[in-house]
Design goal:
Strand order of the largest sheet: 4-3-2-1-6-7-5
Helix content: 25-40%
Radius of gyration: 15 Å
Shape: globular
Number of helices: 5
Number of strands: 7
Order of helices and strands: HHEEEEHEEEHH
Number of domains: 1
Largest sheet: 7 strands, antiparallel
Distance between the termini: 24 Å
Length: 177
């Protein structure tokens, strides 16, 4: 969590809403949540018959970090401030971590509730959104419950933390070259 913790800091507003959202972030996130998986070649498999993707929206003091893992290994991270990392799934470790996270989420599908949309969380909350072949499913809890392991879906959030770690490692390796 170190990279994302750097986004945290003092913020004088306390309205419970995420900070300013860059239009590129909103466009990427909204596009993903409304994407037809077959349009990008993702179809049900024996390992993931229901779930084709997992999105974790993690609200921090100054931003929302959105981590994307798709069943084909596609991996990205968007920051509501406009930054992020797109295409990390081109590296084997982030792709493998994303596939593992999606498969874990598949095994926990009944813990998610069907929804028609999945807005970003307010400050102090984390949302896990399943992208299923039959629509969106959502689970939300306090950041602290995920961090201390008391949330029933802490293992899924931990799998997404591993995705973040692998993105960081891939980026560090690329910078070192």
């Amino acid at each position: 969590m170190g990279f994302l913790r750097r986004l945290r800091g003092h913020d004088d507003t306390d309205d419970g809403q995420p900070r300013e959202v860059a239009s590129i972030y909103a466009g990427l996130r909204d596009g993903l949540l409304s994407l037809d998986p077959s349009s990008v070649g993702i179809h049900p498999t024996p390992e993931t018959p229901n779930v084709w993707g997992l999105v974790m929206d993690w609200s921090l003091d100054r931003a929302v970090a959105t981590i994307v893992s798709l069943a084909d290994g596609t991996t990205s991270m968007y920051l509501s401030t406009g930054g992020g990392s797109i295409g990390a799934g081109e590296h084997p470790a982030p792709a493998a971590a994303s596939i593992a996270a999606v498969r874990l989420a598949e095994s926990r599908i009944d813990d998610f509730h069907p929804v028609s949309d999945s807005p970003v969380p307010v400050r102090g909350r984390t949302v896990l959104t399943l992208l299923t072949f039959s629509g969106l499913r959502r689970f939300e809890d306090d950041n602290a419950a995920f961090e201390n392991g008391s949330s029933r879906l802490a293992p899924v959030a931990n799998a997404m933390q591993q995705v973040i770690h692998e993105i960081q490692q891939a980026e560090a390796s690329t910078r070192a070259r």
